[in-house]
Design goal:
One of its GO terms (molecular function) is glutathione hydrolase activity. Keywords: Acyltransferase, Hydrolase, Signal, Transferase, Zymogen. With 586 residues, this protein is an alpha+beta fold. The protein contains 18 helices and 20 strands. The strands form 4 sheets. Strands 3, 4, 5, 8, 9, 10, 11, 12, 13, 14, 18, 19 and 20 form a 13-stranded antiparallel β-sheet that branches. A 3-stranded mixed β-sheet has the order 15-16-17. Strands 1-2 form a two-stranded antiparallel ribbon. The longest helix has 18 residues. The protein is globular, with a radius of gyration of 22 Å. The chain binds glutamic acid.
């Protein structure tokens, strides 16, 4: 047991040498916030779900109540998010799943990340302004979600793809109620949506965003899901739907008179036929005696959260200063070493020796910016400053995706990030099919950047920050969590863990608490509430802040004692999320 474990155990309950259920230091917000039926916190038994959206949470709950398992429910919810949160998620996107298999007490991950076409080169994005690249055929990666759903259901589910798509088909056909978030996201995208005939027709009916409170139907997407259910993923990966995607990417359906330079993409049907979702070993690190599992490359989520936790564990105390500094150092290392390349030094990045070497750079004051990357070479000294020549920077990444957690009566757990990258993806709906294409390839470094592990290459997956995370204690789940937010995903997951375990907040408080995100930049992005709460002390220690309205939109589930589950979503960010349990009583 480390000094830190001892310190925390005073405030918590010590089980088998590790701390569980630290007592909340701050009162939880009321469970009932937001519209009726949409609650950010739910407690009960027999399974639970948290997503950003009531329709999606209800889709998952319905599957659980009809006897489906957590993976069945997660796919059903993901497809429903493709209807109700179409600017964050969809069948033409990608994502990462972390899955706890209760029967075998084993954690698996499924990489459904979009992939660069074979014609993509290191220079393909060079010199293109970021926003121009986003809204183009060039940014669309080979979609991963459908292959990921099929693999996830085949390996761990009980439903067929067609069965799992049914709740989404119902919502797409019958419609959902437009809320403020959907309206605002449509309005924020209107200038580019109107440049594509297919997108304007679907999302700007009558030339304007659908009003709040109206019913939005997407019969074309319902038809697409129906046929996908019948024909399976082959319809996309080499079949007719794939051919339509390729045609749209190569010749975006520009509105007559539009002056937009929507660059054509490089995707071919053969790229779709070659796509595979991949089962990969999770990243693993221990924190305060618990085992924290995450996503390995091509995401940097697992390695960066894990490294930061190891750094924190090597420090004598943990507060917000230490959280920011550990995050700064981990981002320096992520930027230099992590990408979809052979030879990422994952074992060393997650080693205690490397963490100790990095931790001893953290002092009483904020480090000068930028922090250089360390040397994860297996040879660790007591305190070694890295050479300034190894400075790295954190590239721009879009801010939106979505995350869900699902658990079932058997104790299986899913933490799942699904995304189309920017809010609204590349802005281009495939004509007649009711879904947007992703712009995931803008997650690559545009270059020129010699040696950067995240430059584009044929068939390569862009580095992600998505960090669905499952925490076990003695092989049993304790917590599952994740968030959207581009590169702030990593800091949001880290901050929630610090809030929960180090500051002793309840899980609802740990999610609701104001956030900050330090990613090896001079200024730390922070919500105003964070600046109000921690700003004076942190500023006196050399930190400076850029206010930002909102960071992340997390979902989580905690496994309380005696089978009780606590599902948690955001009380207010992105309009608040939806947590549901199968049964409120045992
Ligand atoms: N494209 C992002 C990533 O993979 C996720 C979407 C987002 O939240 O920006 O890290």
């Amino acid at each position: 047991m480390t000094t830190r474990q001892l310190a925390v155990s005073v405030a918590g309950i010590l089980v088998g040498g590790s701390v569980l259920f630290a007592q909340p230091a701050v009162a939880s917000p009321p469970a009932q916030v937001g519209p009726v039926g949409k609650r950010p916190v739910a407690e009960g038994y027999g399974g639970a779900v948290a997503t950003v959206d009531l329709d999606a949470s209800e889709a998952a709950l319905g599957v659980l109540r009809r006897g489906g398992n957590a993976m069945d429910a997660a796919v059903a919810a993901a497809a429903t998010l493709g209807v109700t949160e179409p600017y964050s998620a969809g069948l033409a996107g990608g994502g990462f799943i972390v899955y706890y298999d209760a029967r075998h007490r084993k954690v698996h991950t499924i990489d459904g990340r979009e992939t660069a076409p074979r014609a993509m080169a290191a220079t393909s994005l060079e010199g293109i302004p970021f926003d121009d690249a986003v809204t183009s055929g060039l940014s669309a990666g080979v979609p991963g979600s459908v292959a990921q759903w099929e693999l996830a259901l085949r390996r761990f589910g009980t439903l067929s793809l067609g069965q799992a798509l049914r709740p989404a088909i119902k919502v797409a056909s019958e419609g959902f109620t437009v809320d403020q978030t959907f309206h605002d996201q449509t309005a924020a995208n209107a200038a580019r949506f109107k440049d594509f005939t297919s997108t304007a027709k679907l999302y700007l009916p009558g030339g304007a965003p659908p009003p709040v409170g109206s019913t939005f139907r997407n019969p074309e997407l319902a038809g697409t899901y129906r046929r996908l259910g019948r024909e399976g993923g082959d319809w996309l990966y080499g079949g007719r739907l794939g051919a339509e995607i390729v045609a749209t990417v190569k010749k975006p359906p520009l509105t007559p008179g539009s002056t937009r330079n929507a660059r054509p993409g490089l995707m071919e049907l053969s790229d779709l036929a070659a796509y595979r979702a991949i089962e990969r070993p999770p990243t693993e690190t221990t924190y305060l005696g618990m085992d924290v599992y995450g996503i390995a490359p091509p995401s940097s989520g697992g390695s960066t959260v894990g490294e930061a936790l190891n750094i924190l564990e090597a420090l004598p105390k943990v507060g917000m200063h230490e959280y920011l500094e550990a995050s700064r150092l981990s981002f320096a290392d992520r930027n230099k070493y992590v990408g979809d390349i052979p030879g990422v030094p994952l074992k060393e990045l997650l080693s205690d020796g490397f963490a100790k070497e990095r931790a001893c750079l953290i002092g009483e004051r904020a480090m000068p910016n930028p922090a250089p990357a360390g040397d994860p070479d297996g040879d660790y000294g007591p305190c070694r400053a890295a050479s300034p020549a190894q400075e790295t920077r954190t590239p721009a990444e879009g801010p939106e995706t979505t995350h869900m957690v699902v658990t079932d009566r058997w104790g299986n757990v899913v933490a799942y990030n699904i995304t189309i990258e920017s809010t609204g993806g590349n802005g281009i709906v495939v004509p007649g099919r009711g879904f947007l294409l992703n712009n995931e390839l803008t997650d690559f470094t545009f270059g020129p950047a010699p040696g950067d592990p995240n430059l584009p290459a044929p068939g390569k997956r862009p580095r992600s920050s998505m960090a669905p995370t499952i925490v076990l204690n003695d092989g049993e789940p304790v917590l599952a969590l994740g968030s959207p937010g581009g590169s702030t995903i990593i800091t949001t997951v880290l901050q929630i863990l610090v809030n929960r375990w180090d500051l002793g907040m309840s899980l609802p408080d740990a999610l609701a608490a104001p956030r900050a995100s330090q990613r090896n930049t001079a200024q730390t992005q922070a919500e105003q509430g964070f600046i109000d709460r921690y700003g004076p002390e942190l500023t006196s220690r050399g930190h400076s802040f850029t206010p930002t309205p909102e960071i992340g939109a997390a979902t989580a589930v905690e496994f309380l004692r005696h089978g009780r589950l606590q599902a948690v979503a955001e009380p207010t960010r992105r309009g608040g999320g939806s947590a549901l349990v199968v049964s409120e009583r045992r």
